[in-house]
Amino acid sequence: MQSMLTRLTRPGLAARTLSRAVHSGTQTASSVAPRVKRAERQLSSEEVYAREERYGAHNYHPLPVALERGEGLYVWDIEGRRYYDFLSAYSAVNQGHCHPRIVAALNAQASKLTITSRAFYNDVLGAYEEYITKLFGYDKVLPMNTGVEGGETACKLARKWAYSVKGIPKYQAKIIFAEGNFWGRTMAAISSSVDPSSYEGFGPFMPGFELVPYNDIPALEKALQDPNVAAFMVEPIQGEAGVVVPDPGYLTTVRELCTKYNVLFIADEVQTGLGRTGRRLAVDHEAVRPDLVVLGKALSGGIYPVSAVLCDDDVMLTIKPGEHGSTYGGNPLACRVAIAALEVLEEENLAENAEKMGNILRAGLNKLPKEIVTMVRGKGLLNAIVIKETKGTTLLKVSAETVPRHNFWYN
């Protein structure tokens, strides 16, 4: 990473660019903007907090830890204290922080070609498409950038399929979601949310979205009987809701019902997929095959924003040229990084390791005093503990007080 940054920011390159701009009579941002001198001294954690508070939007409330470095399962703050990273950037770094093989792939491709736009072919996209589709057993992949873009793409594909294949009347298609879902904060994503912090003050909302309780088969079957339902989009394990694991057989029955009522089964595997739960995909625990799979986060090992939607030709080819896309989606840099990230997951047997370590973790957590920890749940290394609620105590307060004292990173 450092070598890449050095190449992109070396003074000589900037000087030559400025020189050409001056001699040609053109103005660039670097020729007219005031130079900002970078501070030489290392800021303290408190100064980092203050600067973010002063210049950044207040859309997050971080724990009081200012991190500057990560390697494997560890992160270090700017005072040099080391932490175990149990959060793993919401499962974006399943391969560990700054995995050397993924970083090397990034550097090699970044020095060659980073982006072309989809107006042209490039020599990496096809290799990535072939690798990921064969790995997961689908006909096609549509590359995007963020997880929520993957979810939006899946919804668009479902609606397009509903009109062109299922025959739902124009603009009457419905998509069913489970209560407690979380797949992002775009307008479509919050339109399916039951969390007031996500949707309050942002209406009006996307039409055609309906909700059923999670892990409730009778409610789902009743909803799927509507002939205008195009798809059911669900997390195999609900992450933001608190790592909620459905009953055994839930996903199997979802698959059966979607097939019965000719409804697409969309598995949101952005957080649960790619080894985190002890399987390549969380749906693999029940050996079911969704019609569409949405991937993100660890698809790049935390190095670069990469997401993808996988499905077969009967769904994917309903979208024609110009009907969906992204400037950065499928760029050579993203594709090379994603190939490396997937190879690391496979060749280092990280799903198997997550299964093994998750069993050890839950066994240990279940030995904690029951008057404090009332429940432990999860699969692989996607887990949650339920702490007995006491008056005046919140998880944020406990975390903020515990992190500096014990040098642990809490989720």
UniProtKB/TrEMBL annotation:
Pathway: Amino-acid biosynthesis; L-proline biosynthesis; L-glutamate 5-semialdehyde from L-ornithine: step 1/1. The keyword Transferase applies. Its EC number is 2.6.1.13. Gene3D superfamilies: Aspartate Aminotransferase, domain 1, Type I PLP-dependent aspartate aminotransferase-like (Major domain). Pfam families: Aminotran_3. It is an enzyme of class 2 (transferase). Keywords: Aminotransferase, Pyridoxal phosphate, Transferase. Its cofactor is pyridoxal 5'-phosphate. GO terms for molecular function: identical protein binding; ornithine aminotransferase activity; pyridoxal phosphate binding. GO terms for cellular component: cytoplasm. It catalyses: a 2-oxocarboxylate + L-ornithine = L-glutamate 5-semialdehyde + an L-alpha-amino acid. CDD domains: OAT_like. GO terms for biological process: L-arginine catabolic process to L-glutamate; L-arginine catabolic process to proline via ornithine. It comes from the Eukaryota. PANTHER family: AMINOTRANSFERASE CLASS III, ORNITHINE AMINOTRANSFERASE, MITOCHONDRIAL. Belongs to the class-III pyridoxal-phosphate-dependent aminotransferase family. This is Ornithine aminotransferase. It comes from Pygocentrus nattereri (Red-bellied piranha). The lineage of its organism: Eukaryota, Metazoa, Chordata, Craniata, Vertebrata.
